[in-house]
Amino acid sequence: MTTAIDSQRSTELVHLLLIEDDEDDAIIAHSLLSNIRGVEFTIDWVASYEEAHSSILQNRHHVCLLDYCLGTRTGLELLHDAMQYGCKTPIIMMTGTTDRHIDFQAVQLGASDYVVKGHIDPPLLERVIRHARERKKAEVEREELHTQLLETSRQLGMADIAINILHNVGNVLTSINVSAGLISQTIRQAPIGEVGLIANMLHTHHDHLDTFLTMDPKGKLIPQYLQELGNNLSSRVEQTISEVDFLVSKVHHVIQIIDAQQTIAKPGGIQESVRLDDVVKQAFMISGGELEDHHIEVVHEYAELPQVLLDKHQVLQILVNLIRNATHAMIAHERAHHRLTVRIAPCIDQKSFVQIQVSDTGVGIRPEHLTRIFAQGFTTKTHGNGIGLHSSALAAKNCGGSLYASSEGKGRGATFTLTLPLSVVPQSG
Ligand SMILES: Nc1ncnc2c1ncn2[C@@H]1O[C@H](COP(=O)(O)OP(=O)(O)OP(=O)(O)O)[C@@H](O)[C@H]1O
Ligand SMILES: [Mg+2]
Questions:
Q1: What pTM was computed for the model?
Q2: Per-residue pLDDT tens digits for 92-125
Q3: Which of 379, 382, 391 has the most ligand 1 atoms within 8 A of CB, as the residue to mutate?
Q4: Domain range for 184
Q5: Residues lining ligand 1, Cβ inside 6 A
Q6: Among residues 120, 140, 166, which one ends one of the domains?
Q7: Which DSSP helix (H) or strand (E) runs through 356?
Q8: How many domains does the chain have?
Q9: Cα–Cα distance for residue pair 167/69, rounded to 1 Å
Q10: For residue 384, which atom of ligand 1 is closest to its CA?
Q11: Tens of pLDDT along 255-274?
């Protein structure tokens, strides 16, 4: 049943759910509410537990007054259910007696407040209702904010992963593009059409092929020409096969980058048994031809090391970034001769670690930038994104190692040291 109570100077409309199985108590509650000044209440009064249950879960009311006794059930049970189903209405519990235990339980279960019948007057009830509504509003806002924050951080996390994937895949795509271009050029320039021309010639002279091949000036050239054509075509096929193999390995690397990035938060990716010098070699292949294009000398200083177990694709990703950065730092620093040095050596102070150092003779790094360069978004390049070193430091950490930079300052080159755990592959036999 719905009753509207008008207050002469009503300023606010409040839709209230009154859950009360005792008619006399319901009348008292109506009377108390009608005597509250400044608020106009629309009251839905329900007397049974079942009716109350469905009303409260509709979340249609601004506030609910809930009686403790509801026939054979209690208001606490209803409160429990309401909270379980995510009820957003502030609920004020009412009882006939002062019982601290019920009071405590009601608040524990999620009641906004607790009042004792007979000990309440209109101003007090107004205050209790107002406070309960304000508290509930703040609580709902807090929950919404929390949900929003969770969603935002989830989206940021996804954006982070996407940015890293794009950056690292972008690095590899450059060399995929070069390979694909080479394959296309090799096939396009293959003298396949010549085969057809010779076949036509032979067909035209098929009834006197012996004299054509031995006496005719053009025919006499055919055997030698066919041999050269054969050599040319087989060398192109070989070239194409090796370029396709290279392409396949790079596409595989792209897939690994995506996989690794998706599991970046989880330590321990796929461990492979590798030789570190092979990994460095592959990193140079992926880094493209910029070093040769700019006549940069590359020096390799490798200590004898056994096969090690490591997440090859994460290490490749780091090395490609370091080689790219070093190349760009040298291109940006005008000088007659540039040198990139890669060193692989056991760690002197940490026996179970190995170091890969990439040193260049480029622009160098100012002391105040030595740690900032690892922050996501830090870049000094016009077209840089500031992702390479950040994702490399994360990848190094993921591998159980670390990455740090050193430089004697502007114009003095830089050295990046990647430290990795030395998990030696046991030798069989
Ligand atoms: N070898 C180096 N010598 C000098 N400065 C370097 C070197 N490597 C990195 N830096 C500095 O660190 C910054 C961050 O490097 P990082 O690889 O994270 O981003 P980026 O190269 O600017 O852009 P990208 O996201 O495309 O890699 C660079 O902009 C540069 O200022
Ligand atoms: Mg970079």
A1: 0.56
A2: 999 888 778 888 889 899 999 999 988 999 999 9
A3: 379
A4: 154-262
A5: 167, 321, 325-326, 329, 360, 362-365, 373, 378-381, 384-390, 414
A6: 120
A7: strand 353-360
A8: 3
A9: 65
A10: 23
A11: 877 776 665 444 456 788 88
